[in-house]
TrEMBL record:
Name of the coding gene: infB
Signal sequence extent: none
Binding-site positions, GTP: 77-81
Any one Gene Ontology molecular-function term assigned to this protein's record: GTPase activity
The entry's keywords: GTP-binding, Initiation factor, Nucleotide-binding, Protein biosynthesis
NCBIfam families in UniProt: aIF-2, PRK04004.1, small_GTP
Species of provenance: Nitrosopumilus zosterae
Protein name (record): Probable translation initiation factor IF-2
HAMAP family: IF_2_A
Matching PROSITE patterns: G_TR_2 (PS51722)
GO cellular component: cytoplasm
Domain Tr-type G stretches: 3-221
Function: Function in general translation initiation by promoting the binding of the formylmethionine-tRNA to ribosomes. Seems to function along with eIF-2.
Amino acid sequence: MQIRQPIVAVLGHVDSGKTSLLDRIRGTGVQGREAGGITQHIGASFLPSETIKETCGILYKKLEQAEHKVPGILVIDTPGHEVFTNLRSRGGSAADIAILVVDVNRGFQPQTNESLKILQSRKVPFVVALNKCDQISGWRKSETKFISQAIKEQDASIQTDLDQKIYDVVGTLSILGYQSEAFYRVKDFRSEIAIVPISARSGVGIPELLSVLVGLTQQYLQKRLNQEEKEPRGIVLEVNDEVGLGQTANIILIDGTIKKENSIVVAKRDSVIVTKPKAILLPKPLDEMRDPRDKFKPVSQVDAAAGLKIASPDLEGVLPGSTLYVATNDAEIEKYTKLIEAEMKSVFIDTETNGIILKCDTIGSLEAIVEMLRRSQVPIAKADIGPVNRRDIMEAKAIKENDRHLGIVLAFNVKILPDAKDESEDSHIKIFEDKVIYSLIDNYNAWVEEDTANEEDAMFAELTPIAKFTFLKGMIFRNNNPAVFGVRVDVGTLKHKIPFMNMSGRKVGTIHQLQLDKKTVSSAKAGDEVACSVNDVTIGRQIFEEEIFYTFPPSPDAKKLLTKYMHKLSPEEQEVLNDIVRIQREKEPIYGY
Ligand code: GDP
């Protein structure tokens, strides 16, 4: 069985040490130059098994015994989920395995979570590199590169401290649905995620990290990496116009072989193109690079997994994240064209239904965000690539008429065209912009929540308030036309222009005006003593000193209060409302229904 090397991606929060770790892994390769070192690819570096063997030392013994050995690992050079999202393939990932870097002193951070969500949705196995161990306070520097040995050399309190930090990660991962353990305690690598403490700075732990990676790959990814009968395909990472080369695409070849005479089938936004590469390029080894402008060497063929560049004038407009197939005859061209067309159909969304509008920079981010929105049950009307244009805003505007929370635009890492901006301001269409997937969705969800609460507040404020109040003894300022007398608000909020009733449920009248300390006010709260005026009643006939009154919500208001807004009333107000309803239902059984 012919097995290719796994494609390894590095993810994690900003500053957790992803770049340093990649540098360290590549540096390992550079030092191991005599043993084969590393080969530089486009967007990736290849560490052959000889180099890994040299780094891992005795740990490699067990890996060598595997039935199917991988020839090394291909590490993607750019870390972070931005690139990872474009390393997509058929809704899954082109990366076979990932390293999730976590800062040992900070634990999980927002982008750690975001990375994890993306790994989860693409079903990519991963190892946690618990980085910056050298920064644990009191950590003693040692000569060994093996973390298991370095831990033994620490004071007992430092060992406990590290263990605690590992368990913090185990705890967090467990809440997120993963079982995990320090790699030396893992019993079953299939069900438990291995946590490897490392220091990218000193290099300690790198042997263990690499051997866990290779071990996992050899044990569990054989089928995926087997090259027999695999369609030759890759993924487009970026497309550029380069001086001296013209249109080029950086590609990670996932499976199979690409030859110069082959046809390449790949997607643009609205079409599938078939082109023959003008050149296939790889970086020149440093010692062959005489002129820094002359960085690439043309080759006639490349085997997977590899990073390479192809040049062809037809590549302009090819989508980053698009799958690329290598075809050797017309029948294959036709087959792959259909495959790509079907794939494009499943990625872009254009419905006539209610939902949000999403615009992204690449297919990868589009796919990842669509997946996350679906998981949080946000309907999508349109998901596409490119800047936000006026038509997007017009569509959102139409949607907003049916659902104010869906009539919005989410813009991920794309421009907003000036006429779209003007239109959004004129028609109050919200555009959420972000460069972090996680916060884009979070900000939108937070706004929906806040807006729902505001909407609820506004509706609630329209209803007759609930209050209980007492006519104060001796506080008669005028007997009638209008009657003016003093009251104390016992429970709730009293407002002007609302009806009120007495204890037997008879409507007494409407409060015309309220005065607090001789100033007209629109409302008074529990504890306030205010003067109120009421038309068409006479004190001593319809109302009496020391009498207790309730506000009198009309039946529809009572219904809304009972069914929707009970949680906005205090326990005392709830009690008063229940009294009001009980009294009214004795007279009118359908009151409040
Ligand atoms: P990235 O944003 O995840 O790529 O993080 P970087 O690799 O740029 O690292 C962020 C900072 O942490 C830099 O100042 C690094 O020097 C530092 N750093 C990375 N790894 C380690 C480590 O293992 N130990 C220590 N002490 N510092 C580290």
